[in-house]
Amino acid sequence: MKKQLLTLFLSSLFLFNCSENSESETENFKPDGHYITCKLNGESFEPTLTLGSYSTKYLTITGSTKNPGKIIIITIENPEKGKTYNLNNNDSEVDLTSILVETETDKKYSANFSKGSGSITLTHLDEDSAAGIFNAITVYNDDNNDTIKITSGKFSLTSFFL
């Protein structure tokens, strides 16, 4: 009987610890490599090349694949650790924060201050590294019926190029 109770107890501990990432874990996401991952219309996208560039005015994260050639570019204007940037917030001020996806057929989809929607949260930023989460609905030109939905987006950079 003791053995069965012990097994039940240990099993329940395991099950309770297998939950998805909590909101605080996501908010505290720190760089743990050099990558971008996300889902594009439900399909996993993991670029084979990831680069980052940082100045006090802009943070740019670029990920690309070779075959088929896809590119994602995330640009954050005036980057601040802990800040969430909302895309298409209809502010009268032009903000260059954006997410761009280029497909293997060279179609460019974007979400920025004037079209698409989504958000980018910069969870970590210092002079050597950055990390964050993002999601968006990117739009081809101004055709709101031709979109790419980006979900489960995450980026991590452990160095920048100048």
Care to describe what's here?
With 162 residues, the protein is mainly β. It has one domain (32-157). Helix content is 12%, strand content 48%. It contains 2 helices and 11 strands. It has helices at 2-16, 23-27; strands at residues 35-40, 43-45, 49-54, 58-64, 71-77, 84-87, 98-102, 108-111, 117-125, 130-140, 143-157. Strands 1, 2, 3, 4, 5, 6, 7, 8, 9, 10 and 11 form an 11-stranded antiparallel β-sheet that branches. The N and C termini lie far apart (65 Å). It holds the Pfam family DUF6252.
Q: Termini separation (Å)?
A: 65 Å
What average pLDDT do the residues reach? 83
Number of domains: 1
Topology pattern, helix = H, strand = E: HHEEEEEEEEEEE
Silhouette: globular
SS elements, strand count: 11
Percent of residues in β-strands: over 45%
Output the structural class: mainly beta
* Gyration radius from CA atoms, angstroms: 19 Å
What are the segments in which pLDDT stays under 50 over at least 5 consecutive residues? Answer: 1-24
| Range of helix content | 10-25%
Task: Profile the largest sheet.
Answer: 11 strands, antiparallel
The number of helical elements comes to 2
What can be said about this structure in brief?
InterPro entries: DUF6252. By secondary structure, the protein is mainly beta. The protein has 2 helices and 11 strands.
